[in-house]
Structure formats: structure tokens, C-alpha cells
Amino acid sequence: MGLVVAALMLLPFLPTSAAESIDVPGVVRLEGPTVAQMESIDGIDAFVVPDLAKGILVKLDAPEPFSQVCYVTKSPFGALPHAPVVDDPQCRDEDHLSLEAQGASQGPRDYVATYIHPMEMGHMRATLQGRALQAEVLQTSLVSSRGSDGTSPGDPETDEGYFVTLNKPRVLLSGVADLHAAFTGCLKIHGLTVYTRSSSGARSYETGEPSSSGPIPRGPSWLYVCVHEATLTIKGQSPLVAASPSIEAATQGTLRSHGSPSEIAGDLSWQLSANGLGGVLNVGVRTMGAAQGTASPQASWLPLSAGLGVVGVALVGGSGLVLHRQRRRQGP
Questions:
Q1: Residue 247 class from Cβ within 10 Å (0-12 exposed, 13-18 middle, 19+ buried)?
Q2: Which in 7, 26, 47, 160 has the greatest CB count within 10 A?
């Protein structure tokens, strides 16, 4: 039975001399009220709500000028001779834009997602608040929805699906959560009625699966909105997925490794980052109050004293989180 212990990557406000870490394979579950921050230089690389069946609220506020709103519709007749697969996008430049979309949708391809373009100084620095989240390492790509048939990145504006390839491993955080973000990039909505208001007036857009209601059949349609220095809020019961180089968070509850009864419980401040070797998470935990740990039957653990302290996370026998208190360094 092997014992794997590495140095803990602590949160930035901790001294580097106390740093130790551990790599944890598989999924880490965060059970209890959690506030997660993804506010590194890169922020969030990819974000999608892949299933809108349980309902969602989307709000976007872009007070800066020069936002672009594109309404894209595929031909309702398919790829008939002399019929375009995608009609020309109807794009408008808007100043002082606000957007809202709310509701639920059962469409197999419906989703809400963002695109970040680093070469265009895009960013998405966000705070997520949820109660039952999980984290794992994402190695290559993130696909939009249950019905997505994309196999490679295409044109974000005119491709119906959402497909993002990441150039490095990322931490994938998923679950039901509220998101609040500072956002420069593009927002894509497929499956909701979207209402916008700007200096040029108010409009509404029907998006989602084909519709035969009305005098003219409508093919699949979506809204593609690009903004600069906007605020984005997403709430609801539909689970979301976000990919980021690292995540810092606080959890009042339990940090648990998947497939094992081992856990850390208490008021915890922690950080996750992606280790590309074998797709494992690098985990660092700092207690904010009383904490306690348990381990799987085949493991042994050293109890963590109550109160403020830095804790290490050890992996025993290939699974299970156990705890030990870090010994303070003596001397300089």
C-alpha cells in the first residue's frame, strides 16, 4: 500500500516556506456552501450551461459602447439545392447594452455558453456560489450539450454547437451555482427568448430548436453577443461547467475524494490547480476554523487539531484523503 504525499500549494496569502502539496486523481467533491473564485490572469477559459431543462436566468450589462449583437438562423429546409445552411447573420452594433433571458428549455441542443479570445484581450474573472460542486481535470476539449455533434472548433458565430479546445489541462468545476463575472468576450444563447435594450431601443429574439408556428417557419437559431468590460450574471437550477487554470474557494462543509469515505470537514479555504501528468488535481487546503478528517478503512491518519492551521492532504493506497498537521519550520 503506497503512501503518496507531495507539497501543498497554499493560497497566495500564505508564506511560501510552509508550502506543501498533494496530487489527487479523479474527482473531488465539495459538499456544503461554497464560494469559488476564478480570477487568475487567464480567468475562465471555457464556460457552458449544457442543459437548460431545469431553468436559468441570464443577465448581461455592457455599459461600454461598441457591443455587437448577431442573430443567426439556419435554414428550416436543410441543405436543399441553392438554399444556404446558415442564413447571413443579422448583426447590429449596440451602445450601452443590457440583455436578459429567463426560462427553461427541453431542446437537446439548447445551452448558454461563453467564448474567450485571449488575442482580443478577452477575460472572464468570476465568482461562483453553490452547495454541491465537483472538480476534476479537463485535458483537451469542452463540448456544449447533449446533442452536440461537433468534433473540432469552428466559427463560434455561425456554428450551432459549442466546442472549445484547451491548449493546457484545466480544472473543470461543475454543479448548480450562481455566477457573477467581469466579462470581455462573447455570449451565446441557444434555447431561450432573449430581450435586449440599448441606446437604439428594445428588441426580442427567439432562439432554439426549429419552430413551425407563425407565418414563416424558423430553423434552429441562436444569439451571439460580443461585449467589452461587461458584467455577467447567471442563476438557476441548471448545472453549469467552468474550466480554469486554478480555483480558490471557501467551503463550509466537506471536501471529499470520489470513491472513498475519506474527507476533510470544517470551514475550509482551498485551492485546486491542474496537473497535466495523468490528469490529477493539485490540492491545497487551509482551515479557517475547526476541521476534522476521516479516512478509508485501509488508511491511517493523524488527527488535525481544532483551530486555525495549515493542513496537508495525503493520498493512501491510491484513493482517499487523509490529514496531518504541518510541523512549523524551526529557524529562518
A1: buried
A2: 47
